[in-house]
TrEMBL record:
Source organism: Melanaphis sacchari
Name of the protein described by the UniProt record: NCK-interacting protein with SH3 domain
Residue ranges occupied by any SPIN90/Ldb17 leucine-rich domain in the UniProt entry: 95-225
Stretch forming the signal peptide: none
InterPro entries on file: SPIN90/Ldb17 (IPR030125), SPIN90/Ldb17_LRD (IPR018556)
An annotated GO BP: endocytosis
Molecular function via GO: Arp2/3 complex binding
Length: 262
C-alpha cells in the first residue's frame, strides 16, 4: 500500500492524491515504524523519504499525528543526524534523509512558541551537522524538500529553519560565530543582488533581524557598515512588492538598536 501511494505521489499529475492522503492521515504506522525499526537503515530511509514527501506539501496535519510527532520524535531525528558515526555511505544517506525530514516537518509550525522542532533543538548542546548542512543549502539556494510542483508553494524550508532557529535565543546559540559571519556575508550579497520584486528579500531581512537580536553579532559587528547600507537602500526603494513588510522589519531593527543609525 505504501509503495502504491508513493508511486502515485511521485507522478506529479496526481498531487491531489497526496493532499487527500494528508488530510485523512489517521493511522500512525509510519511514525511508529520509524521509532521501532532503528536498526533497519533501509526501512528508516524509505520511511523518512515518504514522510518528507507528505510534509513537504505544507498542509497542516491532523492533530492526532502530533501524539507521535512530538518532541521525542524530533530528538530522535536529531540524534540520527548528530550522533551518527557515518560508518558507510548509507549512513550519510540516512543523515541527509533525516535532515530533509526535519526541514519538511518544521513547515508545520508558523509560531515560534509552539514550534516542536525548536523545543527538540533547545534540548541539545550542539547541532553541528544540522547547522553545517543548513548553511550549505542556504548558500547553494537549494531547498531539498521542494520536489513537487504545487500551485501553493510552501515557504523555503531551509530559510524557514534558519529563521526559526535564530528567532529563539536558546536555539540561536547552536550557530557558531563563524556561521553567523558567513550568514551575514550571504545576506549582504542577496540584498544587493536579489531583485526588489522578489519575495525572498523579506526572508533575508528576517534572517538579518534575528541575527542582530538573538546572537552576539553586534559584539563582532562583521561588515556592519555594508549591512547597514543595504538596509538604508531598501528603505528608500519604492519598487519592491514587499515594501511595507521590508520597511517594518528594518524599522524594528533600528527601533531596538537606534545606535545603528549613527
Amino acid at each position: 500500500y505504501l509503495c502504491i501511494v508513493y508511486f502515485i505521489v511521485c507522478s506529479y499529475k496526481y498531487i491531489v492524491y497526496l493532499l487527500i492522503y494528508v488530510k485523512n492521515l489517521k493511522q500512525m504506522f509510519m511514525f511508529r515504524d520509524m521509532q521501532n525499526n532503528k536498526d533497519d537503515l533501509s526501512k528508516q530511509v524509505i520511511l523518512a523519504e515518504f514522510l518528507t514527501l507528505i510534509l513537504s506539501v505544507g498542509e497542516t496535519l491532523p492533530i492526532s499525528c502530533f501524539e507521535f510527532m512530538n518532541v521525542d520524535f524530533v530528538t530522535k531525528i536529531l540524534s540520527d543526524i548528530e550522533d551518527n558515526q557515518q560508518k558507510s555511505s548509507y549512513d550519510e544517506k540516512k543523515i541527509e534523509c533525516m535532515i530533509n525530514l526535519l526541514l519538511s516537518y518544521n513547515l508545520q509550525f508558523s509560531e515560534i512558541e509552539s514550534n516542536i522542532t525548536l523545543k527538540g533543538l533547545a534540548l541539545r548542546k550542539n547541532a553541528k551537522v544540522l547547522t553545517e548542512n543548513l548553511m550549505i543549502l542556504l548558500i547553494l539556494e537549494k531547498d531539498p524538500v521542494q520536489v513537487l510542483k504545487l500551485k501553493k508553494k510552501p515557504k523555503n524550508s531551509v530559510e524557514k529553519m534558519l529563521n526559526d532557529i535564530l528567532a529563539d535565543s536558546k536555539t540561536a546559540k547552536l550557530l557558531y560565530i563563524n556561521d553567523v559571519e558567513v550568514l551575514v556575508d550571504f545576506i549582504i550579497r542577496q540584498l544587493l543582488n536579489v531583485p526588489s520584486e522578489e519575495m525572498a528579500r523579506t526572508s533575508y531581512l528576517e534572517l538579518c533581524k534575528n541575527i542582530i537580536f538573538n546572537t552576539e553579532y553586534l559584539n563582532q559587528r562583521h561588515k556592519l557598515s555594508y549591512l547597514n547600507k543595504c538596509l538604508q537602500e531598501i528603505l528608500v526603494d519604492d519598487s519592491s512588492c514587499t515594501k511595507n513588510q521590508d520597511v517594518c522589519i528594518i524599522e524594528e531593527i533600528y527601533s531596538k538598536h537606534p545606535e545603528l543609525l549613527e
